[in-house]
Specification:
Low-confidence stretches: none
Number of helices: 0
Structural class: mainly beta
Order of helices and strands: EEEEEEEEEEE
Mean pLDDT: 97
Radius of gyration: 13 Å
Strand content: over 45%
Helix content: under 10%
């Protein structure tokens, strides 16, 4: 079955960096777009970044452009989110997602807290 497992979250000071990882299994990883979303307390889940199966095309939410970078290692079935210049507003649970057919699959999420 499809599984997505995120890791790499934690507590970081404003201006710091974190690298999130999402390991996928149960499907042909390099055939599918992978995305990161986030959900802050009391807010709806929102799009952060996406990357095509080959890794050749990426797209970002305006709020993270220039600070976050999505990448993938198809040999390791892993997608990463490098987050730099973190702000308190980036505090959220971060989820990876893929769609297979019409079905979305989500990981369990990893908490990112940006605070001094």
């Amino acid at each position: 079955q499809v599984q997505l497992v995120e890791s790499g979250g934690g507590l970081v000071q404003p201006g710091g960096s974190l690298r999130l990882s999402c390991v996928a299994s149960g499907f042909t990883f390099n055939h599918f777009v992978m995305s990161w979303y986030r959900q802050a307390p009391g807010k709806e889940r929102e799009f952060v970044a996406t990357i095509t199966g080959s890794g050749g095309i990426t797209n970002y939410a305006d709020s993270v452009k220039g600070r976050f970078t999505i990448s993938r290692d198809n040999a390791k079935n892993t997608v990463h989110l490098q987050m730099n210049s973190l702000k308190p507003g980036d505090t959220a649970v971060y989820f990876c997602r893929t769609n297979i057919g019409v079905t979305p699959y989500w990981g369990q999420g990893t908490q990112v807290t940006v605070s001094s």
